[in-house]
Description:
By secondary structure, chain A is α+β, with helices and mostly antiparallel strands. Chain A contains 13 helices and 23 strands.
Amino acid sequence: MKEKRGQLIFLASLLFFSLSTFSPRLPWTLRLVQVPKQQPWLEYFLQQESIECLQELEQSYLLRLGRDEIIKLRNKGFVFRTIAFYRYDRFYALVRAIGPEDLDFLQRSFQPVFLEGDDYLLILREVSELEEIPVSVKRRLLPQRGRTLAAHACLPQEYTWLFFKEDAYEQLVSEVSAESLRNKVTDLQNFNTRYALTDNCLQAAQYLYNYFLSLGLPVNFHDFTYSGYLCRNVISEIRGQTYPEQVVIICAHYDSTSNQRWTLAPGADDNGSGTAAVMEAARLLISRPLDFTVRFILFSAEEQGLVGSLRYVQEKLNPAENIIAVINLDMIAYADLLPEDLDIIGDRSSGWLVEKISALTSVYGPLPPKKIIDPSFVYSDHASFWDRGIPAVCLIEDASVPNPYYHKTTDTVDTLDFEFYRQAVRSSLSGLAVLAQLIKPGWPGTPAEFNFRTGTYASIFNHLKAVELFWREVPGAAGYNVYRSSSAYLGFEKINQSPVAATRFIDVLLGSEAVFYYAVTAVDSLGRESNFSRVIPVNAGTRSSAALSGFLSGFFNLSRN
Amino acid sequence: MKKNSGLLLFRQTALVFILLYLSAGAVTEAREFRLLASSGLFNFRQTEFREVYGGLNLFGLAAEFYAGNHFGLATGIVLAKGQGEALTIEGDPASFPVSFSRWSFPFLLKYRVLAGRLQLAAGAGVAYSVYEESWLDVDLSSRGKRLHFRGEINADFRLTGRLFLRAGANWELIPTGFRSLLSGGENVNLAGFSFLGGLGFKL
Ligand SMILES: [Zn+2]
């Protein structure tokens, strides 16, 4: 009897133990929680606990939390609100309903959870329920995986970029042709509708595929099904000559919608304009050598809640590649008043990119840029990249005065302003070419195969913790400059006094725990400097000291105490 | 503390030299002066140092003075130098060339036995060494100087009346007072064994 009770207690405690071990992963213990921003130490806490943030809004964060995390959040005295239990078999859509009729509809047909401003959360059993919502409601499906907040997100205004007009880039953007853009948008409009679930949209995909093929570029469909329908992203690229694994993406969604979406959705501005701009960029870049790879992606099913880009980041990200930046173009051809400004929107980790593209826009557009850091602006494909921590910006015509033909059957070519459009394309193209690094003819080549080794090295009397940087010799180079920064994207400073003659440079790491970023350039006898090599991160962190004591105790049989 | 004992050793050796010089006057008939040029190889006692440099090249000039058939004094100048590569303690292997050199001035008391064309000798005393290690690609170097023990044995083979060949070996202990990662955090001792051969001339 006693023995049986003992067994029972043992089994019960085993069950309890295994449940308490696995409980944070069980779906019914996960909750969606909204936490208002502006609470001291909140971001620090979220970073420390690696809490998943499914969506950052303007005034709050939407978090997915386990039971323990909720207890911690409460114990720390943070204000928050539990919205719902999180279930993996449900779909969560963020919607922005601006008109009262839209809100009425949502309230009649769904049970929208108010978040803030015009933002609501819909919890759906079937993703196809989204199709019933009026087209004027902006929407996005929340990713299944959240992201933890970036520790070093930098805000704009902390740095400035200054660009001077350079011949090579000016020559490139001068070839942007309004006529060529008009032809492409007209072609796209002529499919009548590019609503993602129609055959017409698949025909548009084939048209885009053939276009890249006609330029002689490799092109692929990225197929996926949405609600039982085949949808296709179209992907093409120009391979970088120096570092093909470094990638800059320019993208736009080519699908469209309207209140008669099955038959008529011309989508000239939304988003024939972005699509044609990507096509134009490919046409102008094929004849020019670039250091890094430029990838052209035309997404489908954006109007269904960014489905195409969501599937792309889920299925197509290659860990061997480094995506430097994403430029997403969505509605760049409608001007309500002139001079129209171009909105350049990023999240906080894309602040550097917003600044860079803005600076280039004022030089090469030339257009007045409006820099916006708004992590809640998630109603286009750039947001799928933000979720993965990839720097991305959205270029869009002044959003404060919306296009009156937006998501209507009247969004046609004749409503577009082709001078503004041409300038917006010049801006985005200059950004793309600067990021992917046009190789200027006659200038020193970019040092290739830039790489590093780190370690601790010792002679009899001295030892050194160092990073050894090395690269391939550039023909005709008189020397090299080495740059270092504590950020991957900005703040690089030259660390050599005079040009380095060898193809190797040693930087002593002063036992700091930071990550340093390095790049190298070649200079010729006329003092002309090449493009930057790729940027490599070097961890000068704690790894070494632990390994070092391990080595010493192994090598010299030192006792560990 | 160590420096004091070195100084003491130096004083004692100097005293022996003076005594020998004075006693030399008494046995003038066996007085002999030997000059010698030699080269060879120096090997550090510590394995890690050998891993860095291998053997150091050795060049020396020596002057020996025998006051009689057995006792003599020796001095001279010796250079040991070499290049090598720093050891990778941790991380990725990388090549950091390093160089080491040591100038040494020995003062030794010697004892010899003569057997036909052959002379066998042993000596002990001090040497004053100045050493320097530097990294060629990086601005890192160390230098120091030390008075330390030196012992040697050698065999001379007389070729002609005045010319002779020498083969020999030396042993040195050179504590430096520098701590080093390669010595497991202990003080470095540049101790080592050298072999050398040379050509001598008897005055
Ligand atoms: Zn759009």
